Amino acid sequence: MASRDAILRLPVALRQSVVTSRPSLASLAPSSPCSSSPRPYATETTHATPESSVNHDEVSHFNAMASDWWDPHGSSRLLHLMNPLRHQFIRRCLAPDGLDPDRKMRYLDIGCGGGIFAESAARMRNVESVTAIDPTPEVLAVAKKHRRTDPLLLEPGRLTYLQTSIEGLQTPSDKQYDVISLFEVIEHIQRPNPFLQSILKQLKPGGWLIGSTIARTPVSWFTTKFVAEDILRMVPRGTHDWNQYIQPQEMRDWARGQKELNTSDGVGWHVMGVVYVPGFGWKEVKGSEAWGNYFFAVKKREGAV
Amino acid sequence: MSSAATFKRLLALPPAVRRSFYSTAVSSSEPEIYDVVCVGGGPVGLSFVSALHSHHSTRHLRIALIDSQDLTAPHLDSPGGTYSNRCSSLTPAAVRFMKSIGVWEKIDQPRIQPYHAMDVWDGVSGSKIHFDQQQGAGLIDALAEMVPGNRFQASRRKYEAGEMVVATMCENRNLTGALLKRIEELKDERSSSTLNMLAKTKVDSIALGAEAADESSPDFSQWPILSTSSGQNFAARLLVGADGANSPVRRFADIPSPGWDYNQHGVVATLNLDRDLNASELRTAYQRFLPTGPVALLPLPGKKASLVWSTSPAHATALKALAPEEFTAAVNAAFRLMPVDINHMLSASSDSTPTSELSWREPATPPTSTGLPTNFPRIQSLQQGSLASFPLRLRHASTYTGHRVALIGDAAHTIHPLAGQGLNLGLADSEALAKQLVYGVEHGMDIGSSWCLDGYNSERWAKNNAVLGVVDKLEKIYSAGSGPVVWGRSAGVEVLERLGWVKGLISGAAAGRG
Ligand SMILES: Cc1cc2nc3c(=O)[nH]c(=O)nc-3n(C[C@H](O)[C@H](O)[C@H](O)COP(=O)(O)OP(=O)(O)OC[C@H]3O[C@@H](n4cnc5c(N)ncnc54)[C@H](O)[C@@H]3O)c2cc1C
User: Do B233 and B294 reside in the same domain of the chain?
Assistant: First the structure.
């Protein structure tokens, strides 16, 4: 019973990691220990335009699933349960800079979906504003509708939803963001390098790019491809492109290649592996970033532009 | 309750409530928006808002506390004067909570009485359980000690830490007075306090708000809107029911609260004893199980003590009709005579008074035959006007939370007073809910959502349910007057004596009061 439960639950989380993340796109992906053939199928079903990271097939895929985003027992449940860890991880990253209670930060949430993280960030006392973007109109409609259930979030400027890709987002240079979040998005991007590059342009010097994703390993292949798609048929076959999953080390290698990023451990770079334990919830498990869901964060150098 | 069932209930709830909204007049004035509206300023509700207002993460929340009663600290007599008949025994855990939120230092210390041991004996078999500070511990600790392998170390540690107190007797109004003082102090600390205390204000109705007028305005259709006797309206992000056993909040949320009546009344009184003990002396609480229900004598300062006598409604009526000196004799008899004689004394057909019954039966009833503890005091008189009774019930809400609703204290559960847990459980609820809201705020949650509230329900419901179940079983086991259950319990008393957790339960209980 319990083990069936466990199997039933885990893929939902992983499926959701697909559901929340709309922008999809093209890639980087240095060699990895697990993937000898770097994404041979990755571009076959998508019609990405060169200017935008938006994958139109994925966009329509999410429309159908938009309705139960905020249902406490719906398919987004595990994402909701993961949300507190996102804040804990962000706090960990910001801590060395000293959390000045009077300093209010500007957040940009990319691939905001129904607004799970964006709403929560907008409620934080140290947040001035949250800009949340997603290319899928249906999920943004869900997000905007749900925002109305909390009058606080309707205060002018506190939470702004925009239907756009990161490439299409216009940000004046004095309005860059202190924190840019990218939760369960990067694994749907076929060409992560240009995608991440356009994110960095929006990041304030000294600011943080913070995200979460799944490592490309036999474990994640088993849970997301084999169990969720082939056995349980909880998600249509082909929902995940396992070859697009990114290893923490690959993320870090990419960051090291960007001169404006600080990647020294615990100062400019953090990683945290998390595991869903049925009956308990999400839990940090040291070292699990190598084989499952993980958070990463990288800091833009103070002097960078 | 399974999550599916909870969900069904949530689905079922709004339409019914919406109906009640449309049938009761739609309020004219715009509601004021609050993060937390707490209905009920009893000890539980007051401790909850003090806890929220004491913590830096929840201090900024806009809170309204509404009670139909006055909310000013009551005047307390000087020590040696009279004591309220509504006392509770606070477990060390409850006292720790009060200390942590700065309330304990506001308590009128000379009016409280810690006790260090408890004697419990069975009126039918005479078998005894004694426990003292070595058992330490309240009920929850005691239950935790049931975990195999844990028991010895845990009690040992407490002993070595010098935690001598089984529980502390405190008048409810001493506690509420301290809470109100602390709340005043917290309000004064900040120029613009976000805590609004509404005394002498009754909540007349609670209903869901209106659908939003247009796409850009807030949608209150899932927010509880309260209307008060003062004509104000409040919209609550989170509505907390600390509104006692008949909780209007629980009714609004349509949360069932199944249970049963014990067909017993709790007779309470403040008594004067023959012995004047000074503050430094170790004190003992006493409880005797009679077939009609347990009778407990809990120490108050000096020569005062608090009585909780759970008995049949007929006996309760008979007791309340007695003259003060006859009542005093009846209480002495309740601890000293055989159950059959006590029944006779209180039966409607009895032609003897408690005084005469006691004077000729007591010499013929050696303490060894009843299990009477050797140090048991003699009750000398009844404090005038302190005799009262209330019906005993077990009720347990099927869940403590709903969308934008949470229940704490008697609104969530009522329990038999034999274990003295009622208020302690309520304070533990309040502490847990406040903690959960701190967590919610620190993680950007909507504190009225199930994402935030679920943690409170899962932390408290099962624990309270276990306590309610054990207390209920103790009541049932000990109210058997004869037969196998009695034999079993006297033969098994050795076992019971060793069962630390049962002892802990009764002692945590010691306090005898709800
Ligand atoms: C008659 C009686 C006698 C008791 N005697 C004892 C005793 O001797 N010893 C003991 O330990 N325990 C006793 N108990 C139990 C004990 O009082 C409770 O466990 C404890 O008070 C629970 O605290 P609470 O704050 O949850 O609820 P309560 O103390 O019941 O507080 C609820 C509050 O809500 C307010 N309220 C309710 N409805 C509304 C409304 N519509 N609008 C505004 N305000 C509202 C009430 O005015 C009240 O102040 C007794 C209970 C009762 C009913």
Answer: no
